Amino acid sequence: MLEERFVGITMGDPAGIGPEISLKAIDKKNEYKQSVLIYGSYGVLKYYHDLLSLQTPLVRIDRVQEFQKGKINVISVVDLEIGKDIILGQVSSVAGDAAYQYIARAIADAMKGDISVVTTAPLNKEALHEGGHHFDGHTEIFATLTHTQTYTMMLWSDRMSVVHVSTHCALREACNRATKKRVLECIHLADDVMRRLEKKIPKIAVAGLNPHSGEAGLFGQEEIEEIAPAVEQAIAEGLQVTGPVPPDTVFLKAYKGVYDIVVAMYHDQGHIPMKMIAFDSGVNVTLGLPIIRTSVDHGTAFDIAGKGIANEESMLYAVDLGKRFAES
């Protein structure tokens, strides 16, 4: 275990914008050049380093202990070349497998204590599956490789934060996953993270699942049978929780500061409002892990890969939030 707190960026799908925004982020901040490294493919990163005409030297290292301050350090987990092994902007099994290997190596180093934070650039789920790794996304990879049973996805911004009862599943399945047990787990995870980050007892809102939170059972029984009992138990445990709050108003109230964090029932319920207000500044965090994982809150943007125009702002926010976690 190293005494210095390092952040390891996994560069995501090598055919997407992940390599570009990873390089841009480190090049942009001098403090990153002292403690942030990339897990990826050196050849791909060298291509972008030349394309962007970056002045910060790019160096290949084999392990974190070899980190060279003032440079962009790369642990080349899988050696790939653009045009030879992958084509920019195209889904491929090679790129999908590589993206997984970057993550697996970074998680292993984090579990050993060599790095304090793993920050992930976006991967492509189709490519991931073609590469033989059948996960719904980053969250499930991290949970599996860290042997974590209770976890959730949080979207964080400086204006509003959301945790999710379910994420990558069909909407019909999302309704089935809104159980008392799962809702209560997410309430606790939301409470824990906000106490850690904000140093206060948070005001938590739990969204309803159905229109108008079921309208006393007229539009569904989930609020009565599952969500309200979870809220009641959390209140009995001393948490500051309100709900189920109608989903068409809960996010506006949170945005105005009535609540510190919202427990959303499914993926789009939480993602749509967050991406409306914080598309470039939102950060994806996996709660419940034994390590810290943050991520950009956008996709691989295959349509602009290799053009040198990708925005690194979300990556900067993700690294900074990871560092906040590490220091809390």
Number of helices: 11
Task: Provide the residue-averaged pLDDT.
Answer: 96
Residue share in β-strands: 15-25%
Rounded to the nearest angstrom, the radius of gyration is: 20 Å
Helix content percent band: 40-55%
The termini sit apart by: 18 Å
Q: Give the number of DSSP strands.
A: 12
Low-confidence stretches: none
Class per helix and strand makeup: alpha/beta
Cross-sheet strand order for the largest sheet: 3-4-2-1-5-12-11-6-7-10-8-9
- State the major sheet: 12 strands, mixed
- Based on Cα principal axes, name the global outline: elongated
- Please write the string of helix (H) and strand (E) elements: EHEHEEHEHHEEHHEHEHEHEEH
Structure description:
- The chain has 328 residues and is α/β, with parallel strands linked by helices.
- Helix content is 40%, strand content 16%.
- It has 11 helices and 12 strands.
- The protein has helices at residues 18-28, 42-51, 93-112, 125-130, 138-145, 171-177, 180-198, 222-236, 247-255, 267-278, 313-327, and strands spanning 7-10, 36-40, 58-61, 72-76, 117-120, 152-156, 161-164, 204-207, 241-245, 261-264, 283-287, 292-296.
- It has a 12-stranded mixed sheet with strand order 3-4-2-1-5-12-11-6-7-10-8-9, sandwiched between helices.
- Helix 8 links the parallel strand 8 (204-207) and strand 9 (241-245).
- Helix 7 crosses helix 8 (222-236).
- The longest helix is centred in the first third of the chain and has 20 residues, at 93-112.
- The radius of gyration is 20 Å and the shape is elongated.
- The mean pLDDT is 96.
